[in-house]
TrEMBL record:
Domain of life: Bacteria
Pfam families in the cross-refs: Peptidase_M23, Tachylectin
Protein name: Peptidoglycan DD-metalloendopeptidase family protein
Organism: Streptomyces yangpuensis
Keyword vocabulary terms for this entry: Signal
Length: 421
């Protein structure tokens, strides 16, 4: 479980979480994020029995910090949208819209009074709030937009100006990634983005053509961060390095490092909008941060400018920067070469298995495969080197910087000899 808290708090929480499965997850190696993310990720949810839940996630690592289970709402939740940290809108199967006022702290989740009925006729199958005054919903494939004028709306006087954006929105999920921006996945696995203009018009972009069909629930706290929950209850996180480019080619996939491998049994989840901010980065650390101590990263290679990092077979290996993948063999065994967008060539040697296709483009931090002992190797390790114009440059300084979370110096300025520090 990727939860960090004191032992007394953790013990008390796990006793409650086991009843819904959130205590039965397995540990996953941490992957360096492709950018520096700050803020918070607050996710509200509803269980099948009507109980409210709250989870907090660290945006830069995908670690779940805590999960709290609250009281029964008193009705069966159908759709949910988070307006702010203390206010959630929830509908029931009969189309009644409720405002749920929440009170939470590190140890408990409660309600400030019973849910308040503020409307009827809300037969939407999905609801989401964009953080900038617009509530979106779908009903029968029609996308609808409403203006929310109060932080705690009391009725139609505060939620109105209904606009029918368009039809054909037959979507598996719906979430907001920012101001009048929506993301969704479809049953056939596409990941889509929608942008709605001031007149109610819209445009769409396909971020991924396939691979997203497993997610039954999808949320975003902004910053290009996407969180998906599978039918099996696993929550996975993704980072769109440039969420403004309308392309998913730079989405970093953390499939080997889920928030939780199982246990997300909520029938609904909803993220507080625009609470996370990410600053794009061009480089990422090549291993899970806990794979080896920092002190192991200043060792020289035994005969030239490179480094051999002793890690067990099966340790996830990540792309150091954006570039194109090619396969190399020979003494490197199952080797991968990244022809970086920065003009440098990065070599990963002796992998037990490759996890990306030759010719594909990878983003910083993207999973490449797993370390091993193939080729001319005397024991399990990762061989890593940097070449510029065929000249090898010492990678130790770059790895230390990435481990410390600071911007590394340009590859071309790294020395070509004397590689220990």
């Amino acid at each position: 479980m990727k939860v960090r808290m004191s032992r007394p708090v953790l013990g008390a929480l796990l006793a409650g979480l086991m009843t819904i499965g959130l205590g039965s997850v397995t540990a996953a190696p941490a992957q360096a994020a492709t950018a520096s993310c700050t803020g918070s990720v607050s996710v509200y949810g509803a269980l099948a029995d009507g109980r409210l839940t709250y989870s907090q996630i660290e945006p830069s690592t995908g670690d779940r910090i805590k999960t709290l289970i609250g009281p029964d709402l008193g009705f069966t939740p159908k759709a949910m949208a988070t307006l702010n940290f203390n206010t959630v809108l929830v509908t029931d199967p009969g189309g009644v819209l409720y405002r749920v006022d929440i009170q939470t702290n590190n140890l408990s989740l409660g309600l400030i009074g019973p849910p308040v009925q503020i409307g009827t006729g809300w037969t939407h199958d999905k609801l989401v709030y964009d953080g900038h005054g617009h509530l979106y919903g779908t009903a029968g494939g029609v996308l609808l937009q409403y203006l929310v004028s109060q932080a705690k709306p009391a009725g139609s006087q505060h939620i109105g100006q209904r606009v029918e954006v368009g039809s054909g929105f037959v979507l598996k999920t719906l979430a907001s990634s920012g101001d009048d921006r929506l993301i969704a996945n479809t049953a056939d696995g596409r990941l889509l983005e929608y942008r709605i203009d001031g007149g109610g018009g819209w445009s769409s972009a396909q971020l991924a053509a396939s691979g997203w069909s497993a997610f039954d629930r999808l949320v975003s706290p902004g910053g290009g961060l996407y969180y998906g929950v599978t039918g099996a209850g696993g929550m996975y996180w993704y980072q769109d390095v440039d969420p403004d480019d309308r392309s998913g080619s730079d989405i970093a996939y953390h499939n080997d490092d889920p928030v939780d491998a199982s246990g997300w049994t909520q029938t609904l989840i909803s993220a507080q909008p625009e609470t996370a901010t990410c600053t794009s980065g061009n480089y990422a650390y090549v291993l899970p941060r806990g794979a080896v101590p920092r002190s192991e990263l200043d060792d020289p290679h035994h005969d030239y400018a490179a480094i051999d990092i002793q890690v067990p077979t099966g340790t996830p290996v990540h792309a150091v920067t954006r570039g194109t993948v090619s396969y190399i063999d020979g003494g490197f065994g199952n080797g991968i070469q990244i022809n970086g967008a920065d003009g440098a060539t990065y070599i990963y040697g002796h992998l037990s298995q490759r996890g990306v296709a030759a010719g594909s483009t990878v983003s910083p931090g993207q999973y490449l495969g797993e370390s091993g002992n193939t080729g001319q190797s005397t024991g399990p390790h990762l061989h890593f080197e940097i070449r510029i114009g065929g000249v090898k440059h010492c990678p130790q300084r770059m790895l230390l910087d990435l481990y410390d979370g600071v911007t590394p110096q340009a590859p071309g300025t790294l020395p070509t000899s004397g590689c220990s520090y």
